[in-house]
Amino acid sequence: MVVTLKDVAEKAGVSTSTVSRVLSGKGRVGKKCQAHVKKIVEEMGYRPNTNARALACNRTEMIGLITPNIAGAFHGPICVGVEEAASKIRYKILIANSFDEYERVQEAIYSFSEQGCDNIIIHTNFVEDDELIQLAERIPGLVIINRFIPEIAERCVWLDNVSGGRLAAKYLIDSGHKDIAVISHSRKIADPKDRLTGVLEACEKAGISIPEQNILFDPIGTIDEGRLLARQLVESDAKFTAIIAYNDLMAVGAINELQDMGIRVPEDVSVIGFDDLYFCQTSRPTLTTIHYPISEMAKYAAELSVALTTKGKDATPKTHLFMPSLVERKSVKTL
C-alpha cells in the first residue's frame, strides 16, 4: 500500500502543509515538531511524489543520460556513476541508448525535454560540435562526457587521452621494449588519435621510432578486431615485442589470438590495454592497462549538471579534465 502525505499527517497529528514544510525545509516548523514528523516519515516509509513536487516548483528533479549502449562494458559504468550521484540527491534518472545513431540521440533529447528534464548528460561522437553548442544554449544542465569542445568547456567532462597513450608507451619502454606495435581505431574521433599521439611522443622522447607497418587500424574496436590485427601483425613479419591496444577489448582479443597461434603472453609478446574494464582481472594473463575513471567521471558529470541548473554556469570551474593512470598486472614482461 502506497503511503501518502495525508497518511503521514494523520499519524503525526499535524496538517499536510506542516509535513510538506518539514520535507521541503521551507517555512517555519519547530525543531520538536520537525523531529516528530521525520520519525513518522521514516517509520511509514513515505517517499515524496517527485512529479507533484516538480509541478509545484515548475522543475523536474531528473537526470537524463544518453549513451551508446548501457550493456557495453565501457558504458555500463557510466550509468552506475550517474545513478550513484542522482540517488544521493533523490533525483530520478532517465536512460536512452543511442546505438551510435544520430536520430536516436535527437529523439532522446526531445523526449527528456518533453518530460521537463533540464539535466541531460550526453556521451556521443555522432553529433557535431556546433549542434552541441546550440543545445547548451537552451538546455541549462547539458553536460558532455568523454569529449572536449572548447566553446563549452565548462560543460565537458573529459579524459587526457594523450597522457594515457604516453603512459602506456613509457611503461613498455621502461620495461625494456624498443620494438612496439599499435592496434587502434580508425573512426574519426579524438580518442584514438590522441592516444596514438601520446604513444608516439613517448617513443620519440626515448629515441624510438615505430614503423608504419607496426601501426594497424580497424573501424570497430572489439575483441574480434583485436584478434584480426594481432594475426596481421604476426603474418606481416613485423618486428615487435609488445603491443599497445586502443582499448581492453582489442587487447584481450590480441592476447587470445597470439595464444592460439602458439605465441606466449607475456613471455614472447607483451600486451597493454586501455580503459581498465572489469574483465581485465579475469583475462589470462591479467591485463596491464591504463585506467579510465569513467564511473567517477559520470558521477562528476551528474553533479556538474545539477550545479549548472541550480547555481548557474559561472558557479562551476571552467574545465573538468580527468587524468588516466597505469594499472600494472601480468601481461607485460620486463626484458
UniProtKB/TrEMBL annotation:
SUPFAM superfamilies xref list: lambda repressor-like DNA-binding domains, Periplasmic binding protein-like I
Domain of life: Bacteria
InterPro entries cross-referenced by the UniProt entry: Cro/C1-type_HTH, HTH_LacI, LacI/GalR-like_sensor, Lambda_DNA-bd_dom_sf, Peripla_BP_I
Positions of the HTH cro/C1-type domain: 4-26
Gene3D superfamilies in the record: 3.40.50.2300, lambda repressor-like DNA-binding domains
Coiled-coil positions: none
Protein name: DNA-binding transcriptional regulator GalS
Record key words, sorted: DNA-binding, Transcription, Transcription regulation
